[in-house]
Design a protein that fits this description.
The complex is a heterotrimer. Chain A is mostly helical. By secondary structure, chain B is of the alpha+beta class. Chain B has 2 domains: 41 residues, no CATH class; 170 residues, Alpha-Beta Plaits (2-Layer Sandwich), CATH 3.30.70.3270. In chain C, helix 3 crosses helix 4 and helix 9 packs parallel to helix 12. The longest helix of chain C is centred in the N-terminal third of the chain and has 16 residues. Classes of the chains: A mainly alpha, B alpha+beta, C alpha/beta. Chains in contact: A-B, B-C. Chains B and C meet through strand 2, strand 3 and strand 6 of B and loops of C. The structure holds iron/sulfur cluster (4 copies) and FE2/S2 (inorganic) cluster. One iron/sulfur cluster (SF4) binds next to helix 4 of chain B.
Chain lengths: 464, 245, 550
C-alpha cells in the first residue's frame, strides 16, 4: 500500500522533473530567439533564461526542499516519522500533513519574520557581507554544471517555429548557465576559495570571541581541504584533457572494453572520487566535519546571526550540497548520460524514437535524479557518522588526503602514459573498487582487540 | 593486580583505532548500509499505528516507533497512578473527612485542606477547601495509601493535562470530586441518617435500642468480615464514563 | 535529707526500684517519682478518685496474690512492693483497652483529639491487637451540643467521669451526669440544664479522649501539627500559666499549664478565648498621619515629634504591657521626655468569680506600678487624665477603662499623639503616629500578677509585619533622642533596668530560670506548601505533661 504510493510518488516526481526541464528548454530557447532577433546574439538569452530557471528555480527549490528532506530522511533512518504537524489552514488541506511540506514553508516564514539582530559593536558592513559571501559563492558554482545536453533550437517544440518565423538561425541550447566556459573546474576551486571569506568574516564581524574561534576553526579547516580538493581532480583533468565539465561529461560516455563499461570518472578515478567527496564535505562544513559550527554542541561562527541572515548560512549549506551532488555526478557519474554501457545503444534508440529534444529531456531528468540520489547519500553520511575531533579533521586533511591525492596523480600519470586508451586505468580503478568492497565484505568478525577493555581494568575502577 | 605499566599501555591502546577502523572507508560503507536499510524499510514499509509501540509490526519491516500523541496513546499499565480524584459517596458528597492524613504524609506538601462541619450528616467533618497543587505533586501515591477513608484515589488513568497558567494546576475540590462513587457496608452514612443516636439500631446481644418505643424489624445478620471488605476496583472505562471525560 | 525527715516517709519498691514517698501517696504518684508510668484514664490529681476505668490496676505484695488493685486509689504502705510489669497486669491492661475500644468508633480521622489521645497512645503501648468485634458497633449521639462552648461525642466517651467530677467538685455546677448502663451508658446534661460555666473548657482538657470538644476551635487544626509554647494568660490579673498552641504563626488555643500556686490545673473560659486578639484585627504596619511607613522611620518620627512639641506631656501605660515593656517605656518617659508621672490605663474591670477569674482584667498592673516606681514616676489613675488637656500624648497600649469616644475626643485636642498598640482600635483614629506592638505571643517578657509573683512567658513565633515589642520601640525612640540603650532583647532590658526596681519586689524571681525552649524535638520539612506556608517545623508538643489530661 505505502510502497505503491511511494513508488508512484517517485515516478510522478520523475515525470514532473522531465516536464519542468522541457519547460526550461523552451524558456531558454524562446529567450534565445528574442535576443537573437534583437541583438543577433541568442546565447545571451539562453544564459539569462538558464540563470533564472536553473539557479533560482531548480537549485533553490531543491535546496529548500532539502531542509525538509534532511529532517524527514533522518527520521526514517532513525525509525521516526519526522515533522508532520504543521498544517496549511486552507479549506480541504486543514487536516493533511502533506508529507511535512508546510514545515519548510513555516520555516521560511519564521526566518523572514524573526528579529534581525545585529550585536553591539559588530562591524556592520562586514557583518552583512558575510552571509552574502557564503550564500553567493555556493550558489554561483552551479553555473558551470551541465544539467542537460545541447540541442539545436530548431528541435525544440514551439521554439523552432518561433525562430523560423522571426528569422533567427538555429542556435545550440543547453541547460547550463555558462556553457563552453574554459576555466570550468578551476571556477569551482576559485569560488570554493572565496567561501572561506564568508566563514571567517562572519566569525570576526560578530564581535563575539566564541564566534571568532568558530570562524577560525572553519577557515583553517577549509584551507586544509582546499588543496586536497584541487589535487583530487587533477587526475580527471589529465584523463579528459579539459577543464570544462560538459566536455568531461561527454567524455565519460565513451565505451571501454568494447563499450561494455562507460568511462565514468568513478571507474577511472575511484580514489579521486573518494578524495573529492571527502574534501568537498569538509569544505561544506557538514557533519561529520561540522566542528566549526556544531549546531547543538559547539558555538559556531554564526552564533550571532538570526533571522534570514542565519537563513542564508543555513541555505548555503544545502545549496552546497546540491552543487556538490551536481559536480560529482557531472565529473564521476557520467553526468546526464544514462547509466547503461554505451555498447547497448540506449541513447541512440531513444534519439530515434522520441527525437533529439525528447532525449535531451530524458537525459536532463536522469541528471536531476542523480543529483537527488547524491544529495540523499550526503545526508545519509551525515546521519551515519559521528563528528570528527578537530585535530583528527586536520590530520585527515594534511596527513591522509593530501599524500593520497599526490600519489593518485602520479599513478594516474604513469597509467595514462602506459595506456592512453584508458583501459589500464579502468582495470586499476576497478581493482581498487573491488579491494574496498572486499575489505568491507570481509569485515573481521572478531571485535578488534584494542576495543576490548580488560576485565581487570573494569574492576580497577574505570568501570562502574 | 595489573602493573601500572600494563594498565597504561592498555589505556593507550584503547584510545587507538585498529588498522581496519583507520581505513575509514569500509566502516563508513558498513554504517551507510545500516542507515540505508532503515531508510528503505521505513520509507516503503507501512507503519503499524498500534499504541503498544514496543510490539509494533509494520509491513516490509517498518520499524518506526513514533507514538503519534495524542491520536495514539500508550496504554497505561494496570495500577498506573493517574491524577487524583476525590471519591464521592452515592449522594455526591466527598468521602473525604478532612482528616489531613494525606496532607500530613505528602512529601511535596502539595495538599491543603480546610475543614467544615455538617450539622445533619452522619459524619460531621468534611473539607470545605481541598486543594492539590499538581505541579508540586510528585505522584508518589502516598496520599492514597494514607487515606483512612479510601477518599482519595489515583485510578483515573489520566496524567495531569496541560494548562496555560500555574493556577490552573491547583485543583480545587470541584475538579477533584469525580468518578464512580464508593461505599463500604461499614460506612456511617449507610448505617445512620445523621449524627444523632439511631433509634432502631440492633445489636445481637441487646435487642433494639433502649430509648426506642417502636418495635423494629430485625435486620439481616451481618456477614462475616464486613469490616474489612476488599475495595472495589474500577477499570479505566468506568472512571472515564463516570467522570464524563 | 535528714534522718528524721526520712523517718516520715514510707519505703516502697516499684518494679524493684526502691523509693521513699510520703504516706498517703497513691501508687500512680509514687511510681511517677521513679519515672514509671502507670497508665490511667479516670485518675486526675485535681479530682476525687473514682477508680472506674481499671486501667491502672497493678499487683502488690500487700494484697492477696493474683488480686489486682487500682493504683489511683490504693495508697502506699511501708514495705510495699509494686509490680507494674507482671503478665497479669499486662493482660489486664490489654483487656481494658480492648473493652474500651469495643464500641469506640475509632474515627480518629475526624477526631480533634487525635495526636494527643490517651486511647491512641495506650492502644499502641498496651494493646496493639486488631479488634475482635466483627459486627456493627453500638451507635450513640455524635454531636450532642451540651452548651455554648462544648460538644459531646458520646460514642467516643470512655466513661471515666472526669468531666462529671470536675463540674461537681471544682466548678461547683453539677450539670453533667451518667445515664444508662453497660454499652448504652452515656454522659449527658441533666434534663433541662445546659452546660454554661466559666470553667467548661477544662473538661475538654480533662477528657482523655476526643469525646468533649471545644466549639471555638473544633476542626480547625490537627493537634499533632501544633507547637506548644509556655505562656501566661492575659485575661485577668491572676496570670494563669498556659501553653499557647500555635502552628506556623497562627495561635489556635490556650491550654492550662500546671502551677499549684496560681491556677493548679485549670483556667477559665474568659481567658481561654482571649487568644483570639493575638491573631484577629492586628495592627501590623506603623503609620504616620495615616500613611504606612517603615519601622525605623516611624520610630524616628514619633521621637522627633514628641521631643519637639512643647507643653503638657501625658504618658499613658496600659497594664497589658509586660514588665520589660513598662520599664523601657518608663525610661523613655523619664529620661527621654522628662515626664514625672504616668497614667495607668487598662481594660475595664469585670465580674470576679470565686475560683480564678479576677475583676481586674489586666495581667501586669503590679508590674507597671513597679516600673514607675523604679524611675520615680508618679502613678496616677486614668480617671484624672482627662481633667485637663494635654499637648503631647504617649499611649503605650490601647486598652482604656473608660468611654472610648470621649477619650478619642480628648486625644484630638493634643498636638502629638503617639500610640503603641497590638490591635486595631478607634483610638488609632486620633493618633498621629501609630506603632504596632507585639503581644505576648510574639515577644518574651514577664508579667507580675496581683500576688506580686513575676512570671516569664516565651515568644511563640516571630512578630507579625512591623510589630515590635514595646521595649524595642522605646529603645529606638531613646536612640533617636540621643540616648544609646544597647538593649537587644527583653532579657537585656530586664538586666539593665530591673536593677532599679525596689529591692525584693519580685521575690526570688530569676529571669533565666525559664528555659528558652520546651520542645522535645523538631522535624524540619523542606519546601513550602500549596498555600504558600513557609518551610515548616512540625514541632512536637509536650505530651502528657504532669497532671493535665493529655
Ligand atoms: S501523590 Fe504524593 S506528592 Fe502527590 S499529592 Fe499524593 S502524597 Fe502528595
Ligand atoms: S486522607 Fe483521605 S479523608 Fe483524610 S483528608 Fe485526605 S482525602 Fe480526606
Ligand atoms: S478519642 Fe482517640 S481513639 Fe477515639 S476517635 Fe478520638 S483520637 Fe481516635
Ligand atoms: S466525656 Fe470524656 S471526661 Fe467525660 S466521662 Fe467521657 S471520656 Fe471521661
Ligand atoms: S485511673 Fe485508676 S481506675 Fe481509672
Amino acid at each position: 500500500m505505502r510502497a505503491a504510493f511511494i513508488s508512484a510518488l517517485i515516478v510522478g516526481l520523475c515525470v514532473l522533473v522531465g516536464a519542468v526541464l522541457a519547460l526550461f528548454y523552451i524558456a531558454a530557447g524562446a529567450l534565445g530567439v528574442v535576443t537573437g532577433a534583437l541583438f543577433g546574439k541568442p546565447y545571451i538569452g539562453v544564459a539569462v533564461a538558464n540563470t533564472i530557471t536553473l539557479l533560482l528555480v531548480m537549485v533553490m527549490v531543491i535546496a529548500s526542499l532539502l531542509t525538509l528532506a534532511e529532517r524527514k530522511w533522518s527520521a526514517l533512518m532513525q525509525d521516526r516519522i519526522g515533522p508532520n504537524r504543521a498544517r496549511l489552514g486552507l479549506p480541504g488541506l486543514r487536516d493533511k500533513a502533506l508529507l511535512g511540506i508546510p514545515h519548510f514553508l513555516a520555516d521560511g516564514i519564521k526566518m523572514l519574520t524573526k528579529e534581525d539582530f545585529v550585536p553591539a559593536h559588530a562591524s556592520g558592513f562586514l557583518y552583512t557581507l558575510a552571509p552574502m559571501l557564503a550564500f553567493g559563492t555556493a550558489f554561483v558554482l552551479f553555473a558551470v554544471v551541465p544539467v542537460a545536453p545541447v540541442v539545436s533550437a530548431s528541435e525544440i517544440p514551439l521554439v523552432g517555429g518561433l525562430a523560423a518565423s522571426m528569422g533567427v538561425d538555429p542556435f545550440p541550447v543547453s541547460l547550463q548557465v555558462a556553457p563552453g566556459y574554459d576555466p570550468g573546474v578551476l571556477f569551482i576551486f576559485a569560488f570554493s576559495g572565496v567561501a572561506v571569506f564568508g566563514t571567517a568574516l562572519a566569525g570576526w564581524a560578530s564581535n563575539n570571541r566564541l564566534a571568532l574561534l568558530g570562524g577560525l576553526r572553519g577557515s583553517s579547516q577549509m584551507v586544509a581541504y582546499e588543496i586536497a580538493l584541487g589535487m583530487s581532480l587533477v587526475g580527471l583533468m589529465m584523463i579528459f584533457q579539459t577543464l570544462q565539465l560538459e566536455v568531461m561529461t561527454d567524455g565519460q560516455n565513451q565505451g571501454l572494453f568494447g563499450g561494455i563499461l562507460p568511462a565514468w570518472g568513478i571507474f577511472l578515478q575511484p580514489i579521486g572520487f573518494l578524495l573529492y567527496f571527502t574534501a568537498s564535505f569538509a569544505e561544506l562544513k557538514r557533519p561529520p566535519f561540522d566542528a566549526p559550527e556544531g549546531e547543538s554542541e559547539i558555538v559556531g561562527y554564526f552564533v550571532e546571526y538570526s533571522g534570514m541572515r542565519f537563513g542564508l548560512f543555513m541555505i548555503s549549506e544545502f545549496i552546497g550540497t546540491v552543487v556538490l551532488a551536481g559536480v560529482v555526478s557531472a565529473l564521476f557519474l557520467g553526468g546526464y548520460h544514462l547509466p547503461f554501457p554505451p555498447a547497448w545503444g540506449v541513447e541512440e534508440w531513444l534519439r530515434s524514437s522520441v527525437g533529439e529534444f525528447g532525449l535531451a529531456v530524458v537525459l536532463g531528468t536522469n541528471f536531476v535524479l542523480k543529483v537527488i540520489v547524491l544529495c540523499w547519500l550526503q545526508l545519509a553520511i551525515r546521519w551515519t557518522m559521528p563528528r570528527f575531533r578537530f585535530d583528527k579533521i586536520q590530520s585527515l586533511g594534511w596527513k591522509i588526503l593530501l599524500p593520497v591525492a599526490l600519489a593518485n596523480i602520479a599513478v594516474t600519470g604513469v597509467l595514462l602514459l602506459a595506456d592512453p586508451s584508458l583501459e589500464l586505468l579502468a582495470i586499476v580503478g576497478l581493482a581498487e573498487i573491488l579491494f574496498i568492497v572486499g575489505l568491507t565484505a570481509l569485515y573481521p568478525k572478531k571485535q578488534p582487540a584494542s576495543l576490548v577493555l580488560p576485565g581487570r581494568m573494569m574492576a580497577g575502577g574505570t568501570g562502574h | 593486580m595489573a602493573s601500572t605499566k600494563e594498565i597504561k599501555r592498555t589505556a593507550e591502546e584503547t584510545s587507538q583505532l585498529s588498522w581496519y577502523q583507520r581505513l575509514f572507508v569500509p566502516e563508513v560503507i558498513r554504517g551507510l548500509a545500516v542507515t540505508t536499510r532503515h531508510f528503505l524499510r521505513n520509507l516503503f514499509g507501512g507503519r503499524d499505528p498500534s499504541p503498544d509501540f514496543a510490539y509494533r509490526k509494520g509491513s516490509l519491516g517498518n520499524q518506526v516507533a513514533t507514538l503519534q500523541y495524542p491520536e495514539e496513546r500508550a496504554p497505561y499499565p494496570v495500577g498506573y497512578r493517574g491524577t487524583h480524584r476525590l471519591v464521592p459517596r452515592e449522594d455526591g458528597k466527598p468521602r473525604c473527612v478532612a482528616c489531613y492524613m494525606c496532607a500530613t504524609v505528602c512529601p511535596a506538601q502539595c495538599i491543603y485542606i480546610e475543614a467544615g462541619e455538617y450539622e445533619d450528616d452522619p459524619i460531621e467533618k468534611y473539607p470545605t477547601v481541598f486543594v492539590i497543587d499538581q505541579l508540586r505533586c510528585v505522584v508518589c501515591g502516598l496520599c492514597v495509601e494514607a487515606c483512612p477513608k479510601d477518599a482519595i484515589r489515583m485510578d483515573t488513568y489520566q496524567h495531569t493535562p496541560p494548562e496555560y497558567t500555574r493556577e490552573g494546576f491547583i485543583y480545587p475540590i470541584e475538579r477533584l470530586l469525580k468518578g464512580p462513587p464508593v461505599s463500604y457496608p461499614s460506612d456511617p452514612w449507610l448505617r445512620r441518617k445523621d449524627s444523632a443516636q439511631p433509634q432502631d439500631q440492633h445489636f445481637p446481644l441487646h435487642g433494639v435500642a433502649a430509648h426506642s418505643t417502636e418495635p423494629v424489624e430485625p435486620r439481616e445478620p451481618y456477614p462475616a468480615g464486613r469490616n474489612h471488605p476488599a475495595p472495589p476496583v474500577f477499570t479505566e472505562e468506568e472512571v472515564r464514563k463516570a467522570s464524563g471525560s | 535529707m535528714s534522718e528524721e525527715k526520712r523517718a516520715e516517709l514510707v519505703n516502697i519498691t516499684i518494679d524493684g526500684i526502691p523509693a521513699q514517698v510520703p504516706p498517703g501517696t497513691n501508687l500512680i504518684e509514687a511510681a511517677k517519682t521513679v519515672g514509671i508510668e502507670i497508665p490511667h484514664y479516670c485518675y486526675h490529681p485535681g479530682l476525687s478518685i473514682a477508680a472506674n476505668c481499671r486501667m491502672c490496676l497493678v499487683e502488690t505484695n500487700k494484697h492477696p496474690p493474683g488480686k489486682l488493685v487500682p493504683g489511683c486509689q490504693i495508697t502506699v504502705m511501708e514495705g510495699m512492693e509494686i509490680k507494674t510489669q507482671s503478665q497479669r497486669v499486662k493482660d489486664q491492661q490489654r483487656s481494658v483497652q480492648e473493652l474500651l475500644l469495643l464500641h469506640h468508633p475509632v474515627d480518629c480521622a475526624i477526631c480533634d483529639q487525635a495526636g494527643e489521645c490517651r486511647l491512641q497512645d495506650y492502644y499502641q503501648e498496651y494493646d496493639y491487637k486488631p479488634s475482635r468485634l466483627d459486627g456493627p458497633k453500638w451507635m450513640k449521639n455524635k454531636r450532642k451540643i451540651l452548651g455554648p462552648t462544648i460538644v459531646l461525642d458520646q460514642e467516643r466517651c470512655i466513661m471515666c467521669t472526669r468531666c462529671v467530677r470536675f463540674m461537681k467538685e471544682i466548678a461547683g455546677d453539677p450539670v453533667l451526669g451518667v445515664f444508662g448502663r453497660g454499652t448504652r451508658e452515656v454522659i449527658d446534661v441533666f434534663p433541662g440544664k445546659t452546660l454554661e460555666n466559666n470553667y467548661s473548657g477544662n473538661i475538654v482538657d480533662l477528657c482523655p479522649v476526643g469525646a468533649l470538644t471545644w466549639r471555638d476551635n473544633r476542626f480547625r487544626a490537627r493537634a499533632y501539627f501544633l507547637s506548644a509554647t509556655p505562656s501566661i494568660c492575659t485575661g485577668c490579673e491572676r496570670g494563669c500559666n498556659v501553653y499557647l498552641d500555635h502552628f506556623q504563626g497562627v495561635p489556635y488555643r490556650y491550654r492550662p499549664r500546671e502551677n499549684p500556686e496560681i491556677n493548679q490545673y485549670w483556667m477559665c473560659d474568659v481567658g481561654r478565648l482571649s487568644y483570639h486578639s493575638l491573631h484577629d484585627d492586628r495592627l501590623v504596619r506603623a503609620r504616620v498621619d495615616g500613611e504606612e511607613v517603615e519601622v525605623e522611620a516611624a520610630a524616628a518620627t514619633a521621637a522627633k515629634r514628641l521631643a519637639e512639641q512643647g507643653g503638657r506631656l501625658a504618658v499613658v501605660v496600659s497594664p497589658v504591657l509586660s514588665l520589660e515593656d513598662a520599664l523601657a517605656v518608663a525610661a523613655l518617659a523619664r529620661e527621654g521626655l522628662g515626664a514625672d508621672a504616668i497614667y495607668v490605663s487598662g481594660r475595664p474591670a469585670g465580674e470576679a468569680d470565686r475560683l480564678l477569674l479576677r475583676a481586674d482584667r489586666n495581667p501586669n498592673r503590679k508590674g507597671v506600678e513597679l516600673a514607675a516606681q523604679a524611675f520615680g514616676l508618679q502613678v496616677r489613675p486614668f480617671d484624672v487624665l482627662m481633667a485637663s488637656p494635654a499637648d503631647r500624648v504617649l499611649l503605650a497600649g490601647l486598652e482604656i477603662p473608660g468611654d472610648e469616644a470621649a477619650f478619642v475626643e480628648w486625644l484630638r485636642k493634643a498636638q502629638v499623639v503617639v500610640a503603641l498598640g497590638t490591635n486595631l482600635s478607634p483610638l488609632l483614629d486620633a493618633a498621629h503616629v501609630a506603632l504596632p506592638l507585639a503581644p505576648h505571643s510574639e515577644a518574651e517578657g514577664t508579667f507580675v500578677n496581683f500576688q506580686g509573683r513575676a512570671q516569664r512567658f516565651l515568644a511563640a513565633y516571630a512578630p507579625r509585619g512591623g510589630a515590635r515589642p514595646g521595649w524595642a520601640w522605646a529603645a529606638r525612640m531613646l536612640r533617636d533622642l540621643g540616648q544609646e540603650t544597647g538593649w537587644n532583647s527583653a532579657r537585656e532590658v530586664f538586666m539593665d533596668l530591673g536593677r532599679k526596681l525596689p529591692e525584693g519586689s519580685l521575690g526570688s524571681f530569676d529571669w533565666d530560670a525559664t528555659p528558652r525552649r520546651y520542645l522535645k524535638g523538631v522535624v524540619p520539612l523542606p519546601g513550602g506548601t500549596v498555600d504558600g506556608r513557609p518551610a515548616g517545623m512540625r514541632e512536637l508538643l509536650p505530651l502528657r505533661s504532669s497532671g493535665t489530661a493529655a
